[in-house]
Amino acid sequence: MEKITHSAEESIEFGKYIGSKLKKGDMIAYLGGLGMGKTTLTRGIVMGLGLKDDVFSPTFTLSNEYRGDSINVYHFDMYRINGLDGLESIGFFDYPLEDNVSIIEWSENVNGIFNESTIRISIERIDDDTRKIIVDGGDRFC
Predict the structure, then answer these.
(1) Which residues contact residue 139 at a Cβ distance below 8 angstroms, ignoring those fewer than 6 apart?
(2) What sign results for the dihedral spanned by CA atoms 30, 142, 41, 124?
(3) Cβ–Cβ under 8 Å, residues 52 and 80
(4) Tens digits of per-residue pLDDT, 77-134?
(5) Residue 48 is inside which H or E element, if any?
(6) Largest alpha-carbon pair distance within the chain?
(7) From CA 70, how far away is CA 91, in angstroms rounded?
(8) What per-residue confidence (pLDDT) applies to 60?
(9) Residue-level pLDDT at 44
(10) pLDDT of residue 80
């Protein structure tokens, strides 16, 4: 699925749509450089799952947790993490990922954790406000 958004608000709305389709155990792998709008899209995803938390970039904390009544979202930034050893050092494997949704920024740094069911979201900057968002995650996103 491909979507062109022309503002942060449109990206949030598209994120809400994505969030409404997610289920426990889903993992999202983001592809896209600095300033692409990954956190903005995540804000919409969290809203689409019905969570009320404020969403912030996990750049300096490495992970943020957003809590809901029946599902949580774990939002990771892997910019400074390399491979499985790096994941082990931050306690990644201690999170209950199978019962929640996880969102991984800079996913290319930790490719070893993804499988065929991983939802891959690529974000490309067209101009200051416009983004091309491609979701590769199966039929539920068509």
Answers:
(1) none
(2) positive
(3) no
(4) 888 888 788 888 888 888 999 999 999 998 988 888 888 899 999 999 999 999 999 9
(5) helix 38-48
(6) 39
(7) 23
(8) 61
(9) 96
(10) 83
**Tokens found for residue 61:** 């904390």
Crossing angle for the helix pair 38-48 and 8-20, to the nearest 10 degrees: 40
Going by pLDDT thresholds of 50, 70 and 90, the confidence category of residue 18 is very high
Nearest to 70 by CA among 51, 85, 88: 51
Distance, CA of 102 to CA of 113 (rounded, Å): 12
Q: Which residues pair with 132 in a beta bridge?
A: 4, 124
Average pLDDT across the chain, whole number: 90
Q: What token pair was written down for 110?
A: 């930790």
Q: Which two tokens stand for residue 94?
A: 């201690």
With a pLDDT cut of 70, the percent of the chain lying above it is 97
Q: Which of 16, 19, 11 is nearest to 103 (CA)?
A: 19
Question: Angle at Cα 72 formed by Cα 110 and Cα 135, nearest 5°?
Answer: 55
The answer to whether the CB of 113 falls within 8 A of the CB of 87 is: yes
Q: Which two tokens stand for residue 51?
A: 């969570």
